[in-house]
Amino acid sequence: MPVPVPQQRSVPAAETSHGDLTLLVIEDDPAGTTITVPELSAAAGTRVRIRTARNLTEAARLLTDDVDCILLDLALPLTGGGTGPGTPTADAGTSGTGTGTADSGSLPEPVSERAGELAALTHVLGIAPQHAVLALTAQDDTELAAEAVRVGAQDYLFRGELDARVLSRAIRYAVERKRADTAQHQLTESRLRAQENARLERGLLPTPLLDGSGLSFAARYRPGRSRALLGGDFYDVVRTPDGTVHAMIGDVCGHGPDEAALGVELRIAWRALTLAGLCGDELLSTLQQVLEHERQSEEIFATLCTVDIAPDGRRAGLCLAGHPAPLLARHGLPARLLPYQDGGPALGLLPRARWPRRQVELGGAWSLMMYTDGLIEGRVGTGGSERLGQDGMVAMVNSRLEQGLAGEELLEAAVAEVRELNGGELTDDVAVLLLGRDPERIRRWGGSAPRSHPASSVAGRPLGVQRPPL
């Protein structure tokens, strides 16, 4: 049945749309009297360009990106000259999404009793997933019109009510609704991707392996990337069968996802090599080979600090690869930086570099803080022209120690103060971990902290299942 030419009447200016629109009309009109709207443009205040197709094969040829809306006659015969590859078959499926796109992850829609009458519509929705679609049907077929919208059309029109004002408003409404549906669909996909990324990134954060060591553990981790959970900083702590506790913290230059991925690779490689018995220069040389093979560019390097604490907890070996020296606080004494002398270059800078291992006396009761440069490179002072630096960090930590803070409370206060001095969020990644030894607590628990007991009075979580808070 031909689409009637709309009756002309004036349209209020408030209802007009600014900008050209292209309408593709798909209807079977052997007499060639399809819809024409030169008067529609003047009446509706919108320039509407019309393309007409008499079957689905012809419609597929005329369907281009500049088409804004499709007006489909639901009475279009399935044969109607549509013998090409785009012609629907009797078992054509239905679209289950409001945007007209097939969603493999959604539950299948129940087959409608009127699916055969909507075969042309489902075919159009399949070949034009990004276009707005209007369904045109008979005046008395409200049920079919509603079913067309449920399947994926943006709106429906009745032939007997079609005029310039109604058609103009329907086109604009369908286009805007399609845009809103598409935006909502993209937003939902973005949220799902963000949730998947968050789960992945949380899974890549380390779980310290310290059962039986008697050492307390706390950590803070803040990536510099916006809305990220993982940055280029990385750390890990494990205890080997001989009772030695190995700790590591590092920083891949840069802040993007590639740097974060490389940091995870280096951390996992370090854990595997450590559990295999490597340490010191041999371990760092192997890690440098991993970095050289995995990095995206030869300019990428990574700094690293490793500490291996003897089973008695009183001494440790220290290796530095271009990384800031840890901070050691002994019981009753102010915190101080461990010696930086004899440190080696960052990983990835020199092909045959060496990293000497320096022996450090820890004492009976102590706390050892390892950190990345994001903690000390925040700005301080009027105008933010100066950096906090290691000296400023030492003074800040000593001030907090005098207040009686320890463990996670100490790290939380330190990171918060660095952000406050910086005048806002830090742009660089920040990772800080704190290991501590308290002989009184060890004696109280018979040589080591049991698995079910918190690692410290502040941490409040058992070792072996602990993850650092973000």
Automatic annotation (TrEMBL):
Positions of the Response regulatory domain: 22-174
Biased segments, Low complexity type: 86-107
The record's keywords, sorted A to Z, are: Hydrolase, Phosphoprotein
Which SMART domains does the record associate with it? Answer: PP2C_SIG, REC
Query: Which PROSITE patterns does the UniProt record give?
Result: RESPONSE_REGULATORY
- Superkingdom assignment: Bacteria
Q: 4-aspartylphosphate: which positions carry it? A: D73
UniProt-annotated stretches for the region Disordered: 80-110, 444-470
Q: Does the keyword Hydrolase feature in the UniProt annotation?
A: yes
Q: Which Gene3D superfamilies match?
A: 3.40.50.2300, PPM-type phosphatase domain
Sorted alphabetically, which InterPro entries does this protein's record hold? Bact_Sigma-Reg (IPR052016), CheY-like_superfamily (IPR011006), PPM-type-like_dom_sf (IPR036457), PPM-type_phosphatase-like_dom (IPR001932), Sig_transdc_resp-reg_receiver (IPR001789)
* Annotated protein name in UniProt: SpoIIE family protein phosphatase
